[in-house]
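Posted in: Protein Modeling Q&A

I'm a second-year student putting together a small comparison for a lab meeting, and my supervisor asked me to include a predicted structure for HDIG domain-containing protein. I've never done this before, so apologies if this is the wrong subforum. The sequence is pasted below exactly as I got it from our records. If anyone can share the structure token output, I'd also love a short note on what stands out.
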Amino acid sequence: MDRETAWNLINSSVKNQNLIKHMLATEACLRALARRLGQDEEKWGLAGLVHDLDYEQTKDDPASHAMVAAQILAGHNVDPEVVQAVKAHSGNVEPVSLLDKAIVATDPVTGLIVAAALMHPTKKLANVDTDFVLRRFKDRRFAAGANREQIQRCSELGLSLEEFVTICLGAMQCIAGQLGL
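Accepted answer (user: helix_wrangler)
Welcome! Here is the predicted structure, written out as tokens:
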């Protein structure tokens, strides 16, 4: 599946614009991480873009989240590594590959970064820096839904928390217009 096909599938399946923005943010972060780690940027980006394809359908049934998406993606002949990463991000299967581990850490960090931007006086990603996000990270009540343990799994990628946040923040700043931030 190429990006255009994935984008069309998302637009026909996902109605919540904030969810679409989250998927775009995850795509941008995974592309940047793939570049940093010498991995396949297209494959990693695709995994980020489609990872929550079924969220609206499965939000009341966490055990089926990502499993429905995996079935949809498999029906579109998506690379099995992408399908595995989608399943791994939900916590329903163990992350094994570098891509699996990257998506597990990236999924919640996008929410933390967005929340940090929204609390910044300017409400703009361009004015947020890594230190600002890391200070928010330490406050467990801030963006409480952003699972800190998952974010810290960036160490499994060989990245410090600071480096990981810097990469993801930079990626999201590059698409700030699409994110409305």
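A couple of things worth pointing out for your meeting: The domain at 3-179 is CATH 1.10.3210 (Hypothetical protein af1432). The chain has one domain: 3-179.
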